[in-house]
Automatic annotation (TrEMBL):
The keyword DNA-binding applies. Residues 5-141 form the NAC domain. It comes from Eucalyptus grandis. The keyword Transmembrane helix does not apply. One of its GO terms (biological process) is regulation of DNA-templated transcription. GO terms for molecular function: DNA binding. This is NAC domain-containing protein. Keywords: DNA-binding, Nucleus, Transcription, Transcription regulation. Transmembrane segments: none annotated.
Amino acid sequence: MADTLPIGYRFCPSDEQAISYCLAPKVKGEVVFPEFIHEFDVYEKEPWKFFDKNAEESLYVFTKLKMKKSRVERTAGSGYWRGAQSSDVKDCHNNVIGLKKHLNFKVKDGSSSNSQNTEKGSWIMHEYSVPNQEVSRIHLF
């Protein structure tokens, strides 16, 4: 992601900008900053396998949620993403335009990857969603 931005710039949208200018247009089928936001399955593998070991930047991705009956399936490799809290995202007129959910990665008990060493670190993910989930299962992380 850093290769595509001019020196001195970084992609760091506010919660309102992430929903209004990135997620909402994507849900409508519009092209959205393709060089800044990746599209892949964040539940495919553990989070440390998506990043360069020395990278300190955030990674923005669009992903489709996997459902298990009426619940979201949040397993990822040797662990799972556990919801910590959520909050409404409001626009400048105080209208709710989406939801921001905070998730922490937890390694499953008994997993061979169970040692949370410094190489794997502590992982936090922020999930943005739009109010009408029936329209699309695409979310921005």
